[in-house]
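Page 37, continued from 36.
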């Protein structure tokens, strides 16, 4: 065996070991079918993390990826609303506090306390502060859980 092939074998072995023991020294395991398909606190937290990151990162594209607009009632209208919201806003800060997670008829439901501070692009418009309870409905799809409804939708607007 040459030095080069020995090095490749070593690197592959280290990579395999890192993948195998990626979870604090415990062998990594794939999520079971029920874990992957069930809506729970972890899944809801991931969706909220995506929402928070996209809002604070001012990325309407990333925000809209969290939604399945084809399953959402008036999804095209919601997309226009989100685009308008981002067009009118500068810095956005949000805080989500997950209150309840449940499932109903195969759909995930997350109820959360949501707070948002928005600075308008127009310096003459005062900052906006919103604090309300949101209800998200999520459904599983080919690329994971996506939000198919949010109430009230006015959370994603510059109106108080």
């Amino acid at each position: 065996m040459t030095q080069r092939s020995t090095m490749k074998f070593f690197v592959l072995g280290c990579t395999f070991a890192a993948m195998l023991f990626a979870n604090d020294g415990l062998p990594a395991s794939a999520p079971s079918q029920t874990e992957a398909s069930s809506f729970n606190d972890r899944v809801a937290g991931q969706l909220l993390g995506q929402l928070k990151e996209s809002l604070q990162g001012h990325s309407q594209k990333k925000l809209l990826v969290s939604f399945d607009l084809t399953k959402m009632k008036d999804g095209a209208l919601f997309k226009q609303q989100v685009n308008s919201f981002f067009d009118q806003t500068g810095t956005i800060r949000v805080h989500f506090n997950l209150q309840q997670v449940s499932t109903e008829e195969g759909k995930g439901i997350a109820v959360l306390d949501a707070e948002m501070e928005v600075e308008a692009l127009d310096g003459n418009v005062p900052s906006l502060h919103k604090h309300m309870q949101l209800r998200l409905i999520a459904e599983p799809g080919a690329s994971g859980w996506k939000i198919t409804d949010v109430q009230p939708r006015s959370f994603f607007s510059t109106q108080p």
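Residues 3-35 have pLDDT under 50 and may be disordered. Flag for discussion at group meeting. Residues 97 and 113 are 5 Å apart (CA to CA).
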